[in-house]
């Protein structure tokens, strides 16, 4: 049972948090533009120009009249009965006012002496209509059709106007505003009005040029990065069509790049109609980007695409057609609803992939989490609760998401390549023999020897010993990155007590064991059983010396009399190797750097002895091409027909001559040499050979 399933309350909590966050993403732009109305006069001073923003933002709360009368520009006109509204003309504002395409707005200004005579630049960063600006009845500026839909807009800088307050005192600011396309703007969730800001003219022009230069660089840098991502993964798909994730990621990034370019082009529009066109096109590509993003997630973590994905795609296509066929119909929230549902679906796919521990979800999911966190921070920042660099927060979140997707895909390609190599290697090895066949062969050899036994008691004991011995052996050799490991056991005519085993620790280190119990039959099998149990119990956290000592105490406590256990333990972590040995044959270490095979004789009494022997460990580095040969004494003590012992020296020479072979081939050579030496395939004593080779690049 998963963590979420065990905690249904926490599962519900996280769902609510995600849904609430996404709801804010969709709806935070609909916040009312109304501000606190403290008085009907705004005080202006030069110190306000030196604030953090470097400009004076006039309040959005003005007095308003829906009538159209030139006398409204006069400073002496009585406006006490006028409405108090927001100049932004959001949906919530228009619900409480009478708008007939034209209206007048008035605001009293109290100008400080410090601002008298200072050249000021009057700017309308938000302007979706025509505006005439009057100060004390004198017309100082006319603004044409505006383009204030986007966050960055360079069009309004071209229409900014310079003026001065000739002396301190009270001034009447009046604006005649015309906008017949209010409903179109509101349907697109945009402001329909205007906002005024004042800058110090002498410094603002340089600021504007710097802003345009740096913003242009950032915009094209981000767009270029998106196009590079798209091209790279499109080529990956072209070379390996089996991974369709690359195609969907390429289309996703390409849509984002087009959105970026379209928004950039919209900054230079001169009419609201043009802005509408670019807004609709950008909305379409935004929707397509989410469609391709979701398709990417399905391709990564699902075998088949769910049927409802095509429903979402059809709805977006229908929304696009409606925009062109019925441009004035009130359906613009349909796309928001679709994108909101798609966002929830993306989160659901990600959570399920985490739950099912899908490959690549850690990197991809981390990118999703960071992106959502960045969007939530931007939402919180929009309410004034934080002070963030919104541009870099948003770009960083998007960049990390894109990078996580690209890394996930790259890792998937690499994993596929490695899997193919592994399969080819596995097929080659399986063509010679498999681990399963090896186990079956061992059972057949032992079974055949048991049938040759000359009495039922010995047959029964050997059968029990055979089962014990085989049950002690691991099912398979562990796969460890950077290591080529192979092991082979040939049992004697009477089942002995050879033993090998492996244990992989949490830190990635591998512990290998090779043992040889004294004697034969059931008692030897009991010793092997005890050693195996202690090995798997202790190998997880104890040092090699502690493992030897505790196993020795356990065998001694069994009180089996004259039954001991020789055991070699090897711990490998990366290139570091630690070896301890108790009563076992020497090890052979081949050093590729020295091109030499040397014997490692580590003295120590067999385990189970009553004497407390001071075992010592031996350490060495295993470089690329190096290998260790660990063995029982069955091979080096084998005799030929002339009663000559095989010897460790002869074995070292064979190893030196075949050092370039893989571990499996090297063991095969040693077994072949053994059979030629003895003249038969069944040894007098068990033979266990284990080769651990450090694979090169």
Furnish the topology, listing elements before pairings:
Layout: H1 3-6, H2 8-27, E1 41-44, E2 56-57, E3 61-65, E4 83-86, H3 91-94, E5 102-111, E6 120-127, E7 130-135, E8 138-143, H4 155-158, E9 161-163, E10 169-178, H5 182-187, E11 194-200, H6 201-239, H7 245-266, H8 272-301, H9 307-325, H10 333-356, H11 361-382, H12 390-432, H13 435-451, H14 456-472, E12 483-490, E13 498-504, E14 510-517, H15 521-538, H16 544-558, E15 565-573, E16 576-582, E17 587-591, E18 596-600, E19 618-621, E20 627-631, H17 648-657, H18 663-678, E21 687-694
Low-confidence stretches: 1-38, 146-159
Percent in strands: 15-25%
Separation, N- and C-terminal Cα atoms: 41 Å
Question: Which of globular, elongated, flat, extended, rod-shaped describes the shape?
Answer: elongated
The largest sheet, given as strand count, sense and whether it forms a barrel, is: 7 strands, mixed
Tally of helical runs: 18
Give average pLDDT, whole number.
79
**How many strands in all?**
21
Taking Cα atoms only, what radius of gyration do you get, to the nearest Å? 41 Å
Q: What level of helicity do the residues show?
A: 40-55%
Estimated structural class: alpha+beta
